[in-house]
Design brief:
This protein is of the alpha+beta class. It has 14 helices and nine strands. Belongs to the binding-protein-dependent transport system permease family.
Length: 453
Amino acid sequence: MANSVAKSTEGAGALPTPSVPPRKSVTGTRLWVAVLFLLPALVLLGSLVVYPIGYSVWRSLYDADGSGFVGLGNYVDVFTDDATLTAVRNTAVWVVVAPAVVTALGLIFAVLTERVRWGTAFKLIVFMPMAISMLAAGIIFRLVYEADPDRGVANAVVTSVHDTFSDASVYPKARPNAQVSDLKASGEGSFTTTGTVSAGSPVMLPMVGIAPNRLPGDPVDAKPAAPGGDRVTGTVWLDFRLGGGGEKGAIDEREKALKGVKVEAVKNGNVVASTTSSADGTFSLPAEADGAQLRLPGSNFAAPYNGIDWLGPALVTPAIIGSYVWMWAGFAMVLIAAGLAGVDRNLLEAARVDGANEWQVFRKITVPLLAPVLSVVLVTLMINVMKVFDLVYIIAPQPSQDEANVLALQLYLSSFGGGGDYGLGSALGVILLLLVLPVMWVNIRRLRKERQR
């Protein structure tokens, strides 16, 4: 009886079990509605990404016109053709060098601009090249690397520095008048008299090979040298005048003097005295020159220094990488500066209080804290340089383009730039995709780890 009452009481006092509503999706919509909204994006993704990748893989298994199945033959050609191997090698150089240099410069700029009052203006100037297209940047640097110092900025700077520390030739391409002169070529561009000279008998050194109106400065008329007693004297002049006429080997009216020509007296292969010609072309050597041969060193007539062949086969790839660094250093600086703004300054100050110098703070505190940002910049640039095409195609001149070739350019040349081999071009595209995928996988994995934190 008591048990039945207890059960009755317990049943009466029990709370009703609440009904559980059906679980909804996160967005609160049904699956078919989500698919409907995602369908346009999926169609675009499939038509612009998935289909081209699939078609490229299929096309890479066929020959140039697509009529014959060649299997992996195109991939074999990629790694046996000299031009393609050069492109692979240069792409590897780009991937190793360019991202590292850009990231390092961006890090340096970001750290240093925090310590100057005009840091914002500096960041703006460094970032400005990012507003320029690759095409425009290529045209700019094609002019910068122009071989002629009068047109190319790079060689204008190089020649200016070179001429500051090295004497330039006075009269390039000038030579003795072979009909009347005793001067003969003696190696390394120099000219030496066949006979010896004696004091008191002026020496005549007529030169030709340069137009009177092309002489440097404001040349004056040449004058015969007066006998110098125990000294050896003479005259260096241009044995030619506009309009012609006059006597060969003699100083005629309106024939111009050659100022600044170095003259050496040589005995037994040793220079015993030297001097330079004056404004009127005359020179005077001491008594030690008596009985010596006179030599005009090749430095008087050497071709002028015209700088460095930036776009030659040896330097074309480093030169183009330099233009890429100029463009993307601002990108790296801005991203790293944003990461640097989030660094806890208390850690830096604590390190300084403990006795660390600025280099130790930078190397052991700042760089490790910026490691995630640096990896983002580095990986992004690695993906970017694998696809570099514009700069190489525009900057490298035709004679050096083979030495500067990269995979993206080789893809274009094989398929559309006259090669017409779409099978080989598709194979190169697939290889580029396979090279990019590991870098993308590393980047995606890192992003997932960052979200989990």
